[in-house]
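Lecture 7, part B: from sequences to assemblies.

Below are the input chains for today's worked example.
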Amino acid sequence: MTIRGKAHIVGAFEHPGRRLPDSTVPRIHAEVATGALADAGLTLADVDGFFCDGSTGFGPISMIEYLGLRVRYADSTEIGGSSYVSHVGHAAAAIAEGKCSVALVTLAGIVTRGFAFGGRAPRPFPEGPFENVWGMTGPVTNYALAASRHMHEFGTTSAQLAEIKVAASLHAQHNPNALLQDVITVDEVLASPMISDPLHRLDCCVVTDGGGAVVVTSPEIARDLARRSVKVLGHGEAVKHTNNGRVDLTFSGALWSGARAFEEAGITPTDVDYASIYDSFTITVLECLEDLGFCEKGKGGTFVLDGALVAPHGRLPFNTDGGGLCNNHPGNRGGMTKIIEAVRQLRGEAHPAVQVPDCALAIAHGTGGGLSTRMGSVTLVLGREDA
Amino acid sequence: VSASGEPLPVPVPEVTSETAEFWAATAEGTLLLPRCEHCDTVIWYPRAFCPACASFDVTWFPASGRGTVYSYTVVRRPAPPYETSGPFVVAYVELEEGPRVLTNVVECEPDAVEIGMPVEVVFHDTGEGRALYRFRPATT
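Predicted structure of the full complex, as structure tokens:
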């Protein structure tokens, strides 16, 4: 079975908030849910499938009750920040099999009130004692280890990584909701404080509250809705882990998830007009560009030069909302906003300054977890309504 | 020690029935590795299960304590309980027996650490019946 063309994204909504200390996570779920449904021309009563992560209450059980939904399908796949990319793939499969017909996927988080990684996990965490005693400063240390090895193997430089942040900032200047809207330079990235070598502060994504949602439905229902829809053409998932102590830091799970998604969609990376690529850190983007097949392994550092990632005319315009690096990383989870900006591009509704001309094929790629330990990688191939 | 010369903190790792023998040995100055009795695979992180062949027949053997740096980073904005530590090194060390283990590299300036550098294990006691296995530049 394939999901190719059997499900459409018909609604998308990104919460405009970036600092929401007085809100609550369930309320943000409700705000983004109603926002995405309104965008689709649907209501909560139409929803018969619900997807969210496990971070709030009992996950879908709690949120389905809060929202007053009556569903026949629920999924709380938890693979970190890429969970929502996975949810869209799972929703498409459920729709293709007739398990539900209108699937709502929501993300919400409040993290700026008190932001701390590490500490004692509330549930069994078998790898924890061997990893959380060494002073890792949250995910940045984890991702820095991958960056350090990439530089060693392939000669990648900090200036090359900085190009990724610069491209994101060039896009974020057009997004009035972006947390960081100033255009920055490579030199400014390199001059920002080193957090965990070789990653500087400006190699890191923003920390924001907020959320987002999308609505996925069948082609039949999509046809009857007024709004332009986006086809789900392919979906690939992979979990890459430390492989019994033989971790290889030179590639990410995108190597596997990307190949699966492109195969299902029947396209190759050269067909892609726009790419949303999870950008928790600059190195996350660089490794995924290679692993997804946009350039050879080890050549990511040269690929990103000369404005390759800058919309609208770069070789591969990416993260035109400003991405997690500049715009938004709600709840420390960037997968949902990757989908939403890809939907904007395929509807022709990105900011005019960054709208990719004749954008017909896009990907949304998520990397959840840690680039140097274990990650959930998910790739979606999305197509314009007529693709 | 960190670059500031202060000893790094020694947080106490959690112990389960699967890892009690491993941690008890650290307090005696021994780095044990789990090995599968069925397929001979050296296992990391320690667990009572072989992810290579699904055997539960896992035993322990002492590692040489030698290895090389596979990757490293200098942490310059540490979080608790390391918040008062100066810059220090978090690294993957590839043990002679194969596994790449997360750890700290100590007893040298962080800027002196390089990928490929030979290192050897040292133990920092938590005072709670277990020690942290860290690595310093090889002396032999």
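Note for the exam: Residues 20-27 of chain B form the longest helix (8 residues). Keep this in mind when comparing with the next example.
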